[in-house]
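User: Some background: our group keeps a shared notebook of sequences we're curious about, and every so often someone picks one and asks for a predicted structure to add to the entry. Today it's my turn. The entry only has the sequence so far, pasted here. Could you supply the structure so I can complete it?
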Amino acid sequence: MKNEVQVTFPALIENASLARLMVMGVLTPLDVDTQQLTEIKTVVSEAMTNAIIHGYEGNPHGLIELKIELEDDRLAVMIKDNGVGIDDVEQAKQPLFTTKEEEERSGLGFMIMESFTDEFHVDSAPGVGTTVTFERKMVSK
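Assistant: Of course. Here's the predicted structure to add to the notebook entry:
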């Protein structure tokens, strides 16, 4: 079985929940357990929120591209923005690093995303934007 969905959202915080729902919908045929669904929803939420808050700095005119692929039991997701980008991806991946200290951000987003995936990548360049991709093998009940 192969399924693929691609959609572009305005950079609005409410679209993070829509992105989660789309990923859950694609996973429905696999009948995976609640823990796996929760972990995947967390990764999607973190990536979408990062794009909105950090990539576009809250500018609702930005766009976020979401691509979901499911082939057999393998989920692949891409979340891409064309926002401000990240100067140093390795630094941004460090626990507790945040560029939004005034908003009490924990700086754990990338670490959490990586812990819930089998493969996790962040590609970014200042002024170009950021692309987060991840893959995970899903296990049916």
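Suggested note for the entry: The first strand starts at residue 2 and ends at 10. The chain has one domain: 2-137.
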